[in-house]
Amino acid sequence: KEEILKVKEEIQNYIKESKTLQKLEEIRVNYMGKKGIFTELSKKMKDLSNEERPKIGQIINEVKETINNLLDERNKALKEKELNERLESEIIDISLPGTKYNYGTTHPINETMELMKNIFSKMGFDIVDGPEIETVEYNFDALNIPKTHPSRDLTDTFYLNDSIVLRTQTSPVQIRYMLEHGTPFRMICPGKVYRPDYDISHTPMFHQMEGLVVGKDISFADLKGILTHFVKEVFGDRKVRFRPHFFPFTEPSAEMDVECMICHGEGCRLCKESGWIEIMGCGMVDPEVLKYVGLNPDEVNGFAFGVGIERVTMLRHGIGDLRAFFENDMRFLKQFK
Ligand SMILES: CNC(=O)COc1cccc(Nc2cc(Cl)ccn2)c1
After folding, report:
1. ipTM score
2. d(CA 274, CA 175)
3. With bands split at pLDDT 50, 70 and 90, how would you rate the model's confidence at 103?
4. How many angstroms is it from 245 CA to the middle of ligand 1?
5. What is the pLDDT of residue 61?
6. Is residue 242 predicted with pLDDT exceeding 90?
7. 257 by DSSP, 3-state: which?
8. Which of 142, 276, 298, 110 lies closest to 209, judged by CA?
9. Which of 57, 81, 191, 313 could be 112's S-S partner, Cβ–Cβ 3.0 to 4.6 Å?
10. Pocket test for ligand 1, best of 247, 279, 286 (most atoms within 8 A of CB)
11. Is any ligand 1 atom within 6 A of the Cβ of residue 325?
12. Alpha helix (H) ranges present in the chain?
């Protein structure tokens, strides 16, 4: 009996001192398991007298029950303690500022292109792509550009061979479009174009967007209405004007100006004291071009226009040097976040 109570005392102390669930489990296995001390003690019971054996057996059972209860309580207490420690250590301070991620953004040129595409697609224009490597035929001949025109010179065009060039404007896309689609249609074709210039206002690759509307009884008023809406969407509600001009592929041709957004027409460095900024070229499609693609100028006519995307982007954001768009300087680019 003394031995049993001594063991009980010992185990109770171990349980009280146990700090972890794992330690508690070791105690349970060592003492209460099949190879535990109580199994040993029960084996010794056979040496006892008949009246002593039941009494000792009962004491052993009582002690085992007490120990098991203690183990369960300790287990619960340790679980509780462990949970509280975890809650304490894993607490999330929701008042902390979020982690700042260094997101990228759309390049200003692409942002302007998307803006322009949206404005025209809302007016029912198709958005069309085409090859950047083009034939001389589609880049010049189809556009009624004479063989002797300076834009065909090596100073103004990248030739891959005598009949293949890097397109100098996106007009070839419109030629291909007319060859494949019937009329009436409205389309724009934004994209990269290439010219051998490189200075503060020219880069060998830049972006243009041309547009073309062909159908019955298209008038210059339609041209003015559509382009005026476009310019006001991009630059806000400013005055616009059309100045007579010449392009080989349009007749009559015009250049479109918007009132200077800096000096509101007073005259400044940006508008070279004129009070006006040139935005784009346009005109009624020359009958020669319609004929070239097999359309009959007596049945259909149309207007076309072309706008430089870098130019518009520089005006929108007040950027002075065209080359900044292509140098990938993060100090420049992250201003457009
Ligand atoms: C930046 N671009 C400019 O200053 C001028 O671009 C222009 C002006 C007028 C017309 C066109 N395109 C065009 C295309 C066909 Cl298929 C037929 C007739 N014209 C492009």
Report:
1. 0.98
2. 36
3. confident
4. 12
5. 87
6. yes
7. strand
8. 110
9. 313
10. 247
11. no
12. 2-17, 21-27, 37-44, 52-89, 108-121, 136-139, 171-180, 220-235, 287-292, 309-317, 330-333
Strand partners, 213: 186, 303
Pure H helices in 236-329: 287-292, 309-317
**What is the average pLDDT value for the chain, to the nearest integer?**
93
Q: SS3 of 166, please?
A: strand
**Nearest to residue 66, comparing CAs of 38, 25, 35, 26?**
38
**Does ligand 1 come within 6 angstroms of the Cβ of 174?**
yes
Helix axes of 52-89 and 2-17: crossing angle, nearest 10 degrees: 0
Amino acid identity, position 196: P
Q: 255 CB under 6 A from ligand 1?
A: no
Q: Are strands 126-127 and 159-161 parallel, antiparallel or unpaired?
A: unpaired
Q: Does the structure show a pLDDT above 90 at 151?
A: yes
> Measured between alpha carbons, how far is 254 from 262 in angstroms, rounded to an integer?
24
With a 6 Å cutoff on the Cβ, whether 206 touches ligand 1 is no
Q: Which residues contact 47 (CB under 8 A, 6 or more apart)?
A: none
Q: What is the pLDDT of residue 45?
A: 80
Q: CA–CA separation, 120 vs 188, rounded Å?
A: 8
For residues 141 and 139, give the distance between their C-alpha atoms in angstroms, rounded to a whole number.
Answer: 7
d(CA 231, CA 229): 6
Closest ligand 1 atom number to CA of residue 174: 16
| pLDDT 10s digits, 45-96 | 888 888 888 888 888 888 888 888 999 999 999 999 999 999 999 988 889 8
Q: What is the mean pLDDT of residues 184-211?
A: 95
Q: Within 13 Å of residue 173, how many CA atoms lie on the same side as its CB? A: 26
CB 213 within 8 A of CB 226: yes
Rounded to the nearest angstrom, the distance between the alpha carbon of 279 and the centre of ligand 1 is 13
The span from the CA of 143 to the CA of 286, in Å, is: 9
For the chain, the distance separating the N- and C-terminal CA atoms, rounded to the nearest angstrom, is 83
